[in-house]
Amino acid sequence: MSFKYLKELPTPDEMKAQFPLDKELTTLKKERDNMITNVLTGKDSRFLVIIGPCSADSENPVCDYVSRLTKVQDDVKDKLILIPRVYTNKPRTTGEGYKGIATQPDPEKDPDMVAGLIAMRKMIIRSISESGLTPADEMLYPENWEYVSDLLSYVAIGARSVEDQQHRLTVSGFDVASGMKNPTSGDLSVMLNSVYAAQHPHHFTYRGHEVKTTGNPLTHVVLRGAVSKHGNTTQNYHYEDIMRLIEMYDKMDLVNPAAIIDANHSNSDKKYMEQIRIVKEVMHNRKISNDIQKMVKGVMIESYIEPGSQKIGDHIYGKSITDPCLGWEDSKQLIYTIADMCD
After folding, report:
1. pLDDT by residue (tens digit) across 180-199?
2. Residues 117-141: pLDDT tens digits?
3. pTM above 0.85?
4. Which of 78, 205, 257, 310 could form a disulfide with 314 if both were Cys (CB 3.0 to 4.6 A apart)?
5. Percent of the chain surpassing pLDDT 90
6. Which domains does the chain have, with CATH numbers?
7. Is 317 exposed, middle or buried (0-12, 13-18, 19+ CB in 10 A)?
8. CA–CA gap between residue 258 and residue 11 (Å, rounded)
9. Phi, psi of 271 (to 5 degrees)
10. DSSP sequence for 57-72
């Protein structure tokens, strides 16, 4: 066989029993989930800001960063809902490189999946406890959902996963907001088909069981830009892009139409400072078009304590070891700017 079985992983129930979320924080998560649901269903006019590191690589700086959002959230609570990015799995285009704390809890050591699951759960619980904010994560591996299903208020399905049937079917069983990114090709119909699939019930196999789901009405789209057949990045956050998305949404049998604009990745060509300009353009377009205001419910921003990125082993506290991010001061100011532009 090509597979070498190294060790058996603990079950999600075992992990939840060993590292539980207490009753107070469980109640907090339900409240936050309801707030986000009301935004996506049009009952709440507040704007979502999903913000944080490209990858949550180390517990202390990640929890430090998330806790800094608490005061800012209190300042903008009437206009914005901040959702920290605590991304514990990192997709890799070629399969090479650091794959996230859930796989490699120490970026300078070999992968250790059991230690990774423990590190992932401990970090997320600590971040919620210290900040009062429940986070977002990317569901790179659908079978991992049960390990964090009691912790996350938002789930993203990435550009490389959105065409995968198992991802689509698994999202149909989620009970939280779930954003389906456009694929790297930029094909919006692929993205919308994934939303359709996830919003409807399914019968399939999951974690060794035959299961049925009821569909997830909170599934929506995330625009992250694209890469052309020539390898050039193309953007999809402009006015015309959103209007085209609205037209395509109208032709689909979908509920709760909504879009989140990812200001980094191909939309910024990974030029992290461009996120500021991109977010301001998105907010401007919401001001001048009621249709865009109804459709665009939030933005996604890659941000950490220190600006830019570093190589693994440089040990600069709070600086990304994957994609470059906005630093804290620029991020804080941008959040306040978003709030001001919601008027």
Report:
1. 999 999 999 999 999 999 99
2. 999 999 999 999 999 999 999 999 9
3. yes
4. 310
5. 95
6. 12-341 (3.20.20.70)
7. exposed
8. 34
9. -90, 95
10. --HHHHHHHHHHHHHH
